[in-house]
Structures are given as structure tokens and as C-alpha cells.
Specification:
This protein has 2 domains: about 5-135, Rossmann fold; about 155-290, Glycogen Phosphorylase B (Rossmann fold), CATH 3.40.50.2000. It is built from 11 helices and 12 strands. The chain has helices spanning about 35-45, 70-75, 80-85, 105-115, 125-130, 165-175, 210-215, 235-240, 275-280, 290-295, 295-300, and strands at about 5-10, 25-30, 65-70, 90-95, 120, 135, 155-160, 180-185, 200, 220-225, 245-250, 265.
């Protein structure tokens, strides 16, 4: 049974803190949060970074596969030389689930992949076609389920103020006109300027565990895709693993294996209020274990070849 190590920039994000796999292990690149002085020193001398690596640095021989997430890969100039010297037999991969990488960052990832013989993967097929990456899906913790809590709203959305605010507002307007009770929050400065009154603003980062409580209490999750995005976001995974309806602006979900369950509404300028009402009136069809296994962290790790 192959064992995989997944190195992330922050192990407190998403479902990472609660993940407990028996053959896939998610770990943070650095032990704790390096201060400004240490960051300045490692820029002058990159190999210093290994002194702040987490306990994983002494366990590399125990893994058949090492997957480095894109942000972690860009944080440390000496990481891949350390991985290659510490685990000559493990296959090493770089995985990107970020559509906002600059050309310079993409170039850095490609150079690392070529120099250290790493596979380059992305969750978005369009990104793969443009930049020469290989496709692998996004993933989620298959052990998570929605606890029995009372429903308090119809649709929940959480996003950054820099992301597609006009689309967010249009979606909120249509859903409100269809009679849905919304829990929409935009995070970041200046987001409330001229915004619809039914969209809340949070200056500060909203912890993922707090966001999960909102998901549990909502009938549907709203997903606002980036322009040209083909890959499925974390919102899509949450809808599958928590058995929630999904309202998304990503038209490519119609090609997904989970679309047949009837729990997804693609929202665009042609969507009518009647369509929204009929969609919300239908009962949610529980997703089967087969779909959850396909998008599980374990199955995702096995697709790196």
C-alpha cells in the first residue's frame, strides 16, 4: 500500500486539521510561522529554511509519493533539493489548485519540475492545456459529513472582495428575487461600498470552521467561478460531501459525474426565477459513496503517476 506525503503552506486551512488518513498524510512546510527575521535570512541563504521544516523532514524514507502544493512550492527555494536528497526513491509532484498564479510563478514551478524531475499537475483542465500541466481533480476528506443541525437559510456564499463582485451581486439579486433567504459574506476592505444590502461584509478572514457552520445550516452552497475556470472549486466538493444543493456559475459541471444526481443548478443570465424556485423545491438526492471515493484525498493521491 503506497504512502503519500502532502506538503501544504498552512495545515490549518480547509479540512486539513481534521484529516486523518491511514496512507495519506497532510503536513505543513514550516514548523510554526517563521518570523520576518528568519524569512529575511533564508532569502539570503535558502538552505537555512530546512531548520524550520516540520517533523516530516526526518520521515521522508517512509513515503512512496510526495505532493507539494503550489503555494508551499513557491515559499521555499531549497525545498526540492532537500526532498531529492532525503528521498531518492519517492516520486515528487507539484500540484496547483490556484488560477491566480502569475506568469513568473508558473515559470518557477516549471523550472523546479524540470530540474528535480517532478510531475506538474493542476485541478483545471484549461490551465493544464495552456501551461503544459497534467490534470488531476480537486479533493476532499471523505470522512466528513454534515451533522444534524437546524437549517437557517437557503443559500450560503463566502468569497473575497477582489473576486467577481459584479457576478456575486447578480447572483444574490436573482436568488433573493426567487424568494431565497441568503447568507452571503464578502471578505476584504471596501467590499460594502455600493453593495446590495443582503450581502454582508467582513473585514477579517473568516475561519473555515466558522464557514462550515454556515454550510451545515444552509440548504445550498453558492459557487462563483472565475472567468475561464474549468476546474471544480472547494465549494463543489463541500456540496458533494455534505449533501447540499449547489448553485454555481461554472457551466462545466454539466460534464461532471455528480451532475446526474440533480443537485446542481448552473446560474447564468438566462436562469429564470421559476427555474431557481423549482430547483430549490426538489429534494436533495444523497450522493453515493462511489462519488465521494472518487474525490477523496486517497483517490486523488493515487492519480499522481
Amino acid at each position: 500500500m503506497e504512502r503519500s506525503l502532502v506538503i501544504v503552506s498552512d495545515a490549518d486551512l480547509y479540512y486539513f486539521p481534521a484529516f486523518a488518513g491511514d496512507r495519506v498524510f497532510i503536513t505543513q512546510l514550516f514548523s510554526g510561522r517563521p518570523g520576518r527575521l528568519f524569512n529575511a535570512l533564508r532569502k539570503l541563504c535558502p538552505p537555512l529554511a530546512r531548520f524550520r521544516y516540520g517533523p516530516w523532514k526526518n520521515q521522508l524514507d517512509g513515503y512512496d509519493r510526495i505532493v507539494v502544493m503550489d503555494v508551499a512550492a513557491l515559499m521555499d527555494a531549497s525545498l526540492f533539493s532537500f526532498l531529492r536528497s532525503g528521498s531518492a526513491s519517492a516520486d515528487i509532484f507539484i500540484y496547483s489548485w490556484n488560477m491566480d498564479l502569475s506568469d513568473g510563478q508558473i515559470k518557477i514551478l516549471k523550472e523546479k519540475a524540470e530540474r528535480y524531475s517532478c510531475g506538474l499537475y493542476s485541478y483545471d483542465e484549461g490551465f493544464c492545456a495552456r501551461h503544459g500541466f497534467t490534470f488531476n481533480t480537486i479533493m476532499f476528506d471523505a470522512g466528513l459529513r454534515c451533522p444534524p443541525v437546524p437549517l437557517e437559510c437557503d443559500a450560503v456564499y463566502l468569497g473575497l472582495s477582489k473576486d467577481r463582485l459584479d457576478v456575486v451581486e447578480r447572483a444574490a439579486r436573482v436568488l433573493t428575487q426567487a424568494g431565497l433567504q441568503l447568507d452571503f459574506t464578502v471578505v476584504g476592505p471596501g467590499a460594502a461600498d455600493g453593495m446590495e444590502p443582503y450581502i454582508k461584509q467582513s473585514i477579517n478572514y473568516v475561519p473555515y470552521q466558522e464557514y462550515l457552520l454556515r454550510i451545515y445550516r444552509s440548504r445550498a452552497i453558492v459557487d462563483i467561478a472565475q472567468h475561464g475556470q474549468l476546474g471544480y472549486s472547494m465549494r463543489v466538493m463541500e456540496s458533494i460531501f455534505y449533501d447540499k444543493k449547489l448553485i454555481t456559475t461554472n457551466p462545466h459541471v454539466v460534464d461532471a459525474p455528480f451532475f446526474k444526481y440533480g443537485n446542481v443548478l448552473v446560474l447564468d443570465e438566462r436562469t429564470s426565477l421559476i427555474e431557481v424556485k423549482e430547483f430549490m423545491a426538489r429534494p436533495t438526492a444523497p450522493y453515493g459513496d462511489e462519488i465521494r471515493r472518487y474525490y477523496s484525498v486517497e483517490a486523488w493521491a493515487d492519480r499522481f503517476i
